[in-house]
Amino acid sequence: MVESIWSKEDDDGKLEPLTDKNIKIAEKKLRVKLPDSFVNILKQQNGGYITCNAHPSDVPTSWADDHVPVDHFFGIGMGKEKGILDSEYFIQEWGLPDNVVLISGDGHSWIALDYRGRKTEPPVIFIDVDDEQIVELAQDFDSFLSGLYVHDIVFEGEYAENQQRRWTITELNAAFSADDELEIAYAFDYLLVNPTEHKQFIEQSLMKLLLHSKLEIRETAANYAFHFYEEGILSEKCVESIVKMLRQDDEIAYFADMFFPDIKI
User: Fold this and answer.
1) Which class for 164: exposed (0-12), middle (13-18), buried (19 or more C-beta within 10 A)?
2) Which of these three, 117, 147, 177, is where a domain ends?
3) Judging by DSSP bridges, how do beta strands 100-105 and 109-114 pair with one another?
4) 84 close to 114: Cβ distance less than 8 angstroms
5) Cβ-based neighbours of 164, under 8 Å, separated by 6 or more
6) Are the beta carbons of 70 and 148 closer than 8 angstroms?
7) pLDDT tens digits, 38-71
8) Is 8 within the bounds of a domain?
9) One short Pfam family name for this protein (predicted)?
10) Number of structural domains, the chain?
11) Which residues does residue 54 pair with via DSSP β-bridges, in sequence order?
12) pTM of the shown model
């Protein structure tokens, strides 16, 4: 493992520096003993994106045949952003197993410390919510850290063609009017790279799709709303409207807390 696992290029998810007092508070609330190696990396940086993006998996998942995604870790927070202390909330929200501590994830899949069989040095598991699948990735967090690596993403076939495609407004509108979340994702990917002349169109499209009758499309719109927000593309008024829409939709309300925790509507 490299000297520091934390990415220097992205501060998103990085919380206030960790204190010994907050570690004790967290362990008491969670009723577990956190792995020393996990605590040690959080003392370097309290959560955020890491330099790796994957961990091997011996069991095929809906993500890939040989690996699962891991590009960030939650920290330990005591303010609005609670990091791993949000585990109980997400366990209830997503119907996850009890007695796990979520250390990474975005809703449909999670990386967790598995305390179901022990209170110290737990295995690390991958939880696929949609496929109701749980895969053990490593016997402990030390082994898990050693397995992290950078998986090169190779775009082939249709996706590679869409990455190079120049979209017209008519084509973008057609994509956003279809019931195909993959085509919508292709269109949003293009707009993420070419936002300058399309900011109002992006905002209008996001809010329109957040009202779509199909849950998967509303989820896609919520995910891309976060990406556009991260890039500073959305206006403050638009972000507030999006958060309000998310909170009014029980099926995707969790995106508001996960992606926009500091925006209270």
Assistant:
1) exposed
2) 147
3) antiparallel
4) no
5) none
6) yes
7) 999 999 999 999 999 899 999 998 888 889 999 9
8) no
9) SMI1_KNR4
10) 2
11) 69, 149
12) 0.64
